[in-house]
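>> received
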Amino acid sequence: MVNLTYEREDGSRGMMVTGLSMNYSKEYEYNTTNIALLEQMASVGGGRILEPTANPFEHNLTTTPAITPIWPYLLAAAMPVPTR
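>> returned
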C-alpha cells in the first residue's frame, strides 16, 4: 500500500491510498498430488501409501528391551562428599 499526500490550490491537503496487488508465487498454487513420486518414495523407504480413511497412527512396531546399567549412578551416589 502506498499513501500519496497532495496539496490543493486552496492550501488544504488530501491523501490518496493506492497499491498494487500481486499474485502468489508458483509454489503456493494448488497442484494435484504426485502419486507416482509418493509410490516410488514408499517403495525405496520400505513404507506404504495409506488409504485416506486409514489410521496413520498405528502402533504396530515390535518392542525391544533396552538394558541400562545403573551401577555408575549407584557408585556416584555412594561416593563420600569431600569436607574441608
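>> The mean pLDDT is 88.
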